Amino acid sequence: MSNYRNDLDPVTFEVLKNAYVNIVDQMAEQIFRTCYSFVIYSRDFSSALCDANGDTIMQGSGDIAAHVGTLHYTCKAVIENFKDDIHPGDVFVVNDVYQGGTHFNDTRIVRPIFYKDELLGFSQANGHWADVGGAVPGSFNVNAIDHMGEGLRITPTRVWSKGVYLTDVGRLISSNTRAPADIIGDMQAQAEATRVAEQEICRLVEKYGLDTIKSSFGLVQDYVETLTRQRVAELPDGVWETEDYIDVDPAQGEGLIPIRVRMTISGEKVHYDLSKSHPKAISSFLNACFGGSFAAIVAGTKMQFPEIPLNSGFYRVVSVDLGPEGSVVNASWPTPVAGFCSGPFEKIMNSIFELWAEILPSRAMACTFNLDYLLIGGRDGRQPGHQYYMWYDWMVGGWGARNGRDGWSATGPVFGVQLGTQPFEGQERLAPVLTTQNELLVDSGGPGQFRGGLGVQKSVIMTDIDRSVVSYCCDRERSITWGLWGGSPSLPHGVWLNKGFEEERFLGSLFSNVPLESGDIVGRPSAGGGGLGDPLERDPQEVCEDVADGYVSIERARTDYGVVVEEVDADLAEYKVNREATLEERTYIRANRRKWLDEDAESVAARYRSKELDMYDLIRRYGVIVDWGAGDLLPKTTDQFRAMLKRRTVPYWDKSASDPRDSSITLKVA
């Protein structure tokens, strides 16, 4: 056990520990109130305090999960690059993914904190800049073969020198983006946030003394380390492993790309091994450098211990082996990684949720929907001179069902729980788009004894646009959001262009630079969360209430849950369960559902193309994955998806409704 010693009196220590959280939250408020871009206004930012070594003293109370675990890396990169050439009034900018960043859009402003010429630490404000150049608006270029196609790589660079703003440096950076005014405005807002932190730390020094503040920086990290070690030590030792998937490597044909996570608890420490993941970076931007993968490890683990503050003390307990450089989870220069958040990041997080469900079953949660980014940019025909516009949209969706509770619907992604839902009025004012549909998507919640949360269907029509293109960064078009302990999957992600019209096209979940015209309709769903527990064990009356609420259709109530619901008065939302027919239907499903997963996949796909079966039938009943536009079977992907269902779902069928877990079925390997 760690020998934690606190030389401060308990009251002073507690006051300072909470003061540091408050300072970082003040930084967040400063950014929120003074930023220029709609993306950062929608809270895609995070902040931190670091000590003189670059180690994190404290994160804020509402930071983006993907930024957690990376801000100390970029702070250390500034220290390493400038060493003794750091002075009061200096401010640095960095977004380099190969020096601990996440992707190039996440740009960090780092300010050294001095008190009477003594360096105490650093304050850091990270914001997602809507565009950092590159080949496509928004800088999310699916077709990038290296990072040069993704935009501006900013190695640690001084942008204020001893309090003087270096106009030439700021102009150089902003001029390589499509929204230079936003970039300058956001950079100034982030810099001012770091100044707020400097001001507050100096105020605390004057109140409590320099030695007390310097000592407390280390003590709050030791406190978090000790608290985390104590919690881990209470847990059973062992080794557990699982895997999740990225949809495809475009250069290798169809087939899921494995992300393998092995977790070891030994005494007071937790160690993760990702070295058996796909050994090569894939030929799209769904790769992660070490910073992005480590952030996923930290964020996924931290969610198991919500009461513990987060700083570098936590990182002393949680370690990771990413394996050799060059893999999909440990990409090296010059691999493109702009889509890390939709690729390895959320696969790692959901895998961690599954592993910890073995240890802390009360916190169990099935897979959540995958973060998506829709980026449309070009010239705005409403503006004089057809000025550039950038519309940057992300969706809410369904979280996985939990042990004893249904999942949350229309919620931000686990990637960034604090992400705000962007108001449509703001989007329509800033870009030539009009939202025509935004509603909960019936049947999108993964069926289970506890149902996954619902996703959302959103559609927009492009109004007066010129030279505009659309790009989309997502995943789980094929590695569908999965259920836990016998629960069923949700639905695939993917964008439709002009759906329902003669010229409709399914664009998929990963593409760049597709041309748009005025009047085009762009629509997409967000998946719901996976279900938890056998759907046939769900109380029929709860299924009936889901039908009345519009969460589940009458048809899928019968097909997915084996519950026969009859309409009494649709206008009054009155429905009833036919108990005798339900018993008969559930008996039929139990007798046949295992063999459905072994039916000839091509014949199932043919029935989909003929419209005899729908998308939900293929995913939930037959485990068949097709090209959702053309209906062509994806045989390798189907084999992998079926194997996943037979591992995650089938062994738990027909278990007790009071406890869907079975101790004989485990992810424990040692």
UniProtKB/TrEMBL annotation:
Residues 9-535 form the Hydantoinase B/oxoprolinase domain. The lineage of its organism: Bacteria, Pseudomonadati, Pseudomonadota, Alphaproteobacteria, Hyphomicrobiales. This is Hydantoinase B/oxoprolinase family protein. InterPro entries: Hydantoinase_B, Oxoprolinase-like. It comes from Methyloligella solikamskensis. Pfam families: Hydantoinase_B (PF02538).
